[in-house]
Design brief:
Blueprint: H1 5-10, H2 15-19, H3 28-37, H4 42-47, H5 55-63, H6 67-83, E1 88-92, E2 96-100, H7 108-117
Antiparallel strand pairs: 1-2
């Protein structure tokens, strides 16, 4: 199982936010996405009905500032969704497989991108 934190957050980000992302160095894009999804409380709203996580985890998602700990928290959510059978598995044998949030939670632009890449 492989987590891809940027994609995990990206597919949940509204298109208007996603396309307005500043040109950021490696690692900074993740933190930018994180602030829009986790620190805003949107991840809790979207995922708490699917995952039985302690309130401390959701609070940590909102408050965490450390880049590596933020990535670990997204990996935890990825593993949790995989464990309850709610993760969307995308990829192929050549490039690998990634576990992402359920497709029904993805923003329309992300669902369309997946459809376009799998004709």
């Amino acid at each position: 199982m492989e987590a891809f934190p940027n994609a995990f957050l990206g597919v949940l980000t509204p298109e208007s936010d996603y396309v307005s992302a500043p040109n950021l160095k490696r690692g900074k894009r993740f933190d930018w996405l994180y602030c829009r999804a986790a620190a805003s409380g949107r991840l809790k709203t979207l995922l708490s009905p699917l995952l039985s996580m302690p309130d401390e985890v959701w609070q940590r998602l909102r408050d965490e500032k450390d880049h590596e700990k933020r990535a670990a928290l997204i990996c935890l959510l990825t593993a949790g969704l995989a464990d309850v059978g709610k993760a969307e598995i995308v990829g192929d044998n050549e490039g690998g497989w990634f576990w992402l949030p359920p497709i029904r939670l993805w923003q329309p632009w992300a669902r369309e991108g997946l459809r376009a890449s799998n004709p």
